[in-house]
Amino acid sequence: MSENVYLAQGSRTAIRPYAQADAEEFTIRARESRDMHSPWIFPPDDARAYAAYAGRLIEDPTKAGFLVCERGGGESGAGGGGARDRIAGFININNIVGGGFQCGALGYGAFSHASGRGLMSEGLGLVVRYAFGPLGLHRLEANIQPANEGSLALVERAGFRLEGFSPDFLFIDGAWRDHERWAITAEMLSQEGV
């Protein structure tokens, strides 16, 4: 695991950028979570796929990737050290456009050991505030398959609003999938205190 250089911290989670050194832990967690992720998302589950995936998030200025880490949530380190933080999930901002748009599209997933514990809710709140603060964005969108109840509940808890429906929006798992369009703006965040 890479050094904990957090961009933002909450009471139970913190967010930090991806690092190539996270490959082993990330891919182990992705393999453990395959059943939970399918058919919605397919995060990289081997070292080569992770290297390419993380590389794009690290190097591409139209992307910003964040690992959601459970603070003090890992096993004790070797030699009697304290508990280390472990990756609970990931939240990526893709297709970042500046100028008059100042928007990005979210992609995210929890790992099975963290599912249902509120860690991703706190992590998403940290990412939203970071996006509207240091990243200078005005709007974040999340496109979600209508049957993905967990994902819909996550963005709704975070204050996103339903804006529409996009048929045949994304090619996932061999077919074009319908998606609901959810979004939040910087003004909504300040009004709702998210």
Can you tag this structure with a few keywords?
alpha+beta; Aminopeptidase; 6 helices; about 30% helix; globular
What can you tell me about this protein's structure?
The protein contains 6 helices and 8 strands. The protein is α+β, with helices and mostly antiparallel strands and 194 residues long. A hairpin with a 2-residue loop joins strand 7 and strand 8. About 4% of the residues have low confidence. The protein has a single domain, classed as Aminopeptidase. Strands 1-2-3-4-5-6-8-7 form an 8-stranded mixed sheet, sandwiched between helices.
> Regions with pLDDT < 50 over 5+ consecutive residues?
76-83
Average pLDDT confidence is: 89
The number of helices is 6
N-to-C series of helices and strands: EEHHHEEEHEHEEH
